[in-house]
Amino acid sequence: MDEGSQAINRPILITGAGQRIGLALAQHFLAKSQPVIVSYRTRHPAVDKLEQAGVTCLYADFSTNEGILEFAERVKSLTPALRAIIHNASEWKPETRDTALCDTLQAMMQVHVTTPYLLNHELESLLRGHGQAGSDIIHLTDYVAERGSDKHIAYAASKAALENMTLSFALKLAPEVKVNAIAPALIMFNTDDDADYRQRSLNKSLMKIAPGEQEIVRLVEYLLTSRYVTGRSHAVDGGRHLR
């Protein structure tokens, strides 16, 4: 079996694939007959459809270290190797008077830092042994990791930590595994976002569009096919950094 066939037979693991970007990635790889394992926290209707189409869908509770480690063990019981891990699971909690600040910070660090940190370590053996640049880890971070956020301070800090962790894992796992980050700004709206909010958001970028989840899908494909790009964060912000 050639290297390309081996890569196709190894599943891609996507965390948080029940909706939006994670779902789009799962659907994309499914259409290419690429085996996919996804985690979900909420059983959205799309998860049922993915499962019916042949995707392995695993419930995961990343709010505790035990939940993370249990998930890693389930993945290891299902496959001896992985083609890639795409860390998409995320939560967007602002600082509010209703939640203790330490709880907000802990929640953001748990999902955006502790979860990928533990999973990368626990599943490292599934990524190694497939040749130079044979596997990938991709961290989904955020545009605010670079500029900060006055209303989502803990969130921005946790995404910045994840970007830094990209550098460390790239050093640790090279040359077998490439490790990169993708830092999106506005990619897509929620269905309940009103017209005023949408226009204000669009005006923040130079390109003045919400490009949709396929913008991220195409970048993921590029990173997976590259044999040289590692340890980098790839901004997808429509020129927003120039404002």
Structural account:
α2 (20-31) links the parallel β1 and β2. With 243 residues, this protein is α/β, with parallel strands linked by helices. 46% of the residues lie in helices and 14% in strands. It has a 7-stranded parallel β-sheet, sandwiched between helices.
Main attributes of the structure:
alpha/beta, disordered N terminus, 14% strand, 243 residues, 7-stranded parallel β-sheet, globular, 7 strands, 46% helix, 10 helices
The H/E string reads HEHEHEHEHHEHHEHHE
Rounded mean pLDDT score = 95
Global Rg: 18 Å
How far is the N terminus from the C terminus? 50 Å
Give a quick precis of the structure.
This protein has ten helices and seven strands.
Secondary-structure topology with pairs:
Elements: H1 3-9, E1 12-15, H2 20-31, E2 36-40, H3 45-52, E3 56-59, H4 65-78, E4 84-87, H5 101-122, H6 124-127, E5 135-140, H7 144-147, H8 153-173, E6 177-184, H9 195-202, H10 214-225, E7 233-236
Parallel strand pairs: 1-2, 1-4, 2-3, 4-5, 5-6, 6-7
Helix pairs in contact: 4-5, 5-8
